[in-house]
TrEMBL record:
Cofactor note text: Binds 1 zinc ion.
Protein name per UniProt: Transcriptional repressor NrdR
ATP-cone domain segment(s): 49-139
Annotated GO biological process: negative regulation of DNA-templated transcription
Keyword Repressor annotated: yes
Entry-linked Pfam families: ATP-cone, Zn_ribbon_NrdR
Length: 164
């Protein structure tokens, strides 16, 4: 494996462990030339699943695109990259289990949104606004409503604080 920093092919594995889903191995490596450390992931090569885009075109599934979308949605949020990697692995596992050869981008987007909704509401809304292509503020508000405490709960809190 070539070092990311000095590009020399001389490293040693310091630590190896299976990912939480058991579908990949995370390896911590140290370059014997420059001494810097980097992480690699090893996973089984599976027959490629094709992604059907909104325009009908097809491309090979690329887990990095999901990770990139998650990173953008979670920018400046208290979410670690390890958690995002786990989410990507879970989504990838669902895709390979549920879809034999092709999956629509809408299915992938819904899987991402399911995870983000539980993980971080702000990241969820960021992702949803791009994924669902909101045209106006009403569409945005409609997406927020299920995430907000109901007006009844808010009213009850106010009256209980006021002693009534």
């Amino acid at each position: 494996m070539k070092c990311l920093f000095c590009k020399v092919d001389d490293d040693k594995v310091i630590n190896s462990r299976a990912s939480t889903d058991g579908l990949s191995v995370k390896r911590r490596r140290e370059c014997l030339n420059c001494g810097r450390r980097f992480t690699t992931y090893e996973r089984v090569e599976e027959s490629p699943v094709r992604v059907i885009k909104k325009d009908g075109s097809r491309i090979n599934f690329d887990r990095n695109k999901i990770l990139s979308g998650l990173l953008k949605a979670c920018e400046k949020r208290p979410v670690s990259t390890d958690i995002l990697e786990t989410i990507v692995s879970e989504i990838e596992s669902v895709i390979y289990d549920k879809f034999e050869k092709e999956v629509e981008t809408t299915s992938i987007g819904e899987l991402v949104m399911q995870h983000l909704r539980v993980l971080d509401k702000v990241a969820y809304v960021r992702f949803a606004s791009v994924y669902r292509e909101f045209k106006d503020i009403n569409e945005f508000i409609n997406e927020l409503k299920p995430l907000m405490p109901s007006a009844k709960k808010i009213k009850q809190k106010k009256t209980s604080k006021n002693g009534g």
